[in-house]
C-alpha cells in the first residue's frame, strides 16, 4: 500500500514531466514553423524559375521503369540540365520538395492521396446571373484599366484563353493566377521561339516559289475601327 509521501512524490514527478513537455513544445513548434516557411519559400522560388523558363519540368530518366516516376516530373535547369530538389505531380500539378536519389515514399503517399480525391462538381452549361454580373464587372475593369478594345472579349483566341483557365480550375481547384500565368518576358521568349520555328517551316516553300519564278510580295494595310 503506497504511503502519502509516495503519492505526493509520484504526483510531483508527473507534474514536473508535464511542465517539461510544455516548455519543450514551444521551441519544437517554432522550429516547425521555420522549416515550413523555408519550404514554402523554396517552392515559390521554383515556381518563379519555371515561369521565367530558367528551369523546366521534364520526365524522369527512369519514368518507364519506376512506377512513381510515371506520375511525377522532375525539375531541372534549362542550361546545365542539372536536376533540382523538386518533383511535380502530374495528377494535381503540386510541386513537392524531393532530392534525386532519395526515397520516393513521400511522393507515393501524395499520389495515392491525390488519386482518392474525386471532384463532386458536375458539368454545367452556364452559371448563375450573379456570377455573370461579377464576370462582366471584371471584364469592364480589364478593358478600361488596360486600355483594351471591347471587341477583345469576342475574339476566338480570347475564348480559348478563358476556356483553358476554366479547365485548369476544374482540374486543380482554386489556384492563384500569379502562380499560373507566365510573365511578359516568358511570352516574348515563347513568341520568338514559335516565330523562328515558323520561319524554318516556310523557308523551303519560299525557295521553291523563287526557283519557279512565281513569288510576289505585297503589303497589307488596314485601319483600326477603335483607334
Short structural summary:
With 227 residues, the protein is of the alpha+beta class.
Characterise the protein shown here.
The chain is an alpha+beta fold. It folds into 2 domains: 86 residues, no CATH class; 83 residues, Zinc finger, BED domain-containing (Arc Repressor Mutant, subunit A, Orthogonal Bundle). It contains 5 helices and 4 strands; from the N terminus they run αββββαααα. A 4-stranded antiparallel sheet has the order 1-2-3-4, with helices on both faces. The protein is extended, with a radius of gyration of 29 Å. It starts with a helix and ends in a 16-residue tail after the last helix.
Ordered list of secondary-structure elements with their pairings:
Layout: H1 4-51, E1 55-59, E2 72-77, E3 83-89, E4 95-97, H2 105-116, H3 129-145, H4 156-172, H5 184-211
Antiparallel strand pairs: 1-2, 2-3, 3-4
Keywords:
227 residues; alpha+beta; Arc Repressor Mutant, subunit A; four-stranded antiparallel β-sheet; 5 helices; 4 strands; 54% helix; extended; disordered N terminus
Supply Rg: 29 Å
Overall mean pLDDT score? 77
Fraction of residues in H or I helices: 40-55%
Enumerate the strands of the largest sheet in spatial order, edge to edge or round the barrel: 1-2-3-4
Would you list the SSEs in sequence order as H and E? HEEEEHHHH
Strand tally, please?
A: 4
Amino acid at each position: 500500500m503506497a504511503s502519502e509521501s509516495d503519492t505526493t512524490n509520484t504526483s510531483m514527478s508527473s507534474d514536473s514531466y508535464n511542465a517539461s513537455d510544455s516548455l519543450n513544445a514551444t521551441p519544437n513548434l517554432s522550429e516547425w514553423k521555420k522549416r515550413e516557411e523555408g519550404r514554402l519559400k523554396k517552392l515559390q522560388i521554383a515556381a518563379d524559375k519555371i515561369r521565367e523558363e530558367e528551369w523546366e519540368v521534364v520526365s524522369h530518366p527512369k519514368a518507364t521503369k519506376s512506377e512513381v516516376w510515371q506520375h511525377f516530373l522532375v525539375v531541372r535547369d534549362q542550361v546545365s540540365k542539372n536536376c533540382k530538389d523538386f518533383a511535380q505531380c502530374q495528377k494535381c500539378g503540386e510541386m513537392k520538395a524531393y532530392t534525386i536519389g532519395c526515397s520516393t515514399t513521400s511522393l507515393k503517399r501524395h499520389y495515392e492521396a491525390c488519386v482518392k480525391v474525386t471532384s463532386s462538381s458536375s458539368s454545367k452549361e452556364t452559371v448563375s446571373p450573379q456570377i455573370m454580373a461579377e464576370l462582366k464587372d471584371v471584364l469592364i475593369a480589364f478593358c478600361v484599366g488596360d486600355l483594351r478594345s471591347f471587341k477583345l472579349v469576342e475574339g476566338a483566341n480570347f475564348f480559348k484563353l478563358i476556356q483553358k483557365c476554366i479547365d485548369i480550375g476544374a482540374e486543380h481547384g482554386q489556384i492563384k493566377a500569379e502562380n499560373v500565368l507566365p510573365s511578359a518576358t516568358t511570352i516574348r521568349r515563347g513568341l520568338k521561339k514559335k516565330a523562328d520555328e515558323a520561319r524554318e517551316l516556310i523557308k523551303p516553300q519560299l525557295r521553291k516559289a523563287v526557283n519557279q519564278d512565281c513569288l510576289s510580295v505585297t503589303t497589307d494595310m488596314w485601319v483600326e475601327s477603335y483607334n
